[in-house]
Amino acid sequence: MRRIFYTLTLGILIISWLFQGGCATDSSVGREAGRGAAYGAVGGAVAGAVTSLIFGGSVIGGAASGAAIGAASGAATGAVAGSVADSDRKKMEAKASEPPKPGGPKTGPDPKYVELQKEIGKKNFEAATLLAECRHREAIGAAEESYAATQDPKQRLYALFLKAAAAEESGNKELSGSIYAKIAQEDPGRGNAEKARSDTLEGIMKIQKIRQEHGLSPLCK
Asked: Which domain holds residue 83?
């Protein structure tokens, strides 16, 4: 009788533990999706703004569409941990966990996401997200991979600008200077290296503004 009672008790405890573990897993998945949406929104906004800066078009429109598609992609891929301050991260996660407002943006896949990623390249989109999160070294690495992996002049130019912005903002003047010269060689119609640097600095200002608009500190800490 004792053995039966012991077996039943152990079974109940195991089932209870599994149930709690399952709930925790679901909760964790939900949190990761929320974080991913928050970080994806910043990365998407940066990608859209940089696209507008390099190739023309409405900067505001580019940033807005980038934010929408970034939220969708970020929610699917999960959060990207970076050198974002803890206080900033908590603000973003709290914002991401808020219930959607009536008439607000849809969270499902957005065809604009597919179009932008196709336009600038998947690795460039990743580099833009890393740059938004102040992960400069990794952003430079992703941009280098993108540059080496494609012969598309548009994507190569985009990769160079992202790499230059990450180098410039992180204080690596030697690297950024070499990239500006390469941008001038890659696209002579844009002007000389000084013009490339001016465009990059303008892009960094926009990136910092986007961080601030998404509840982050504009300057990397």
From this structure: 33-213
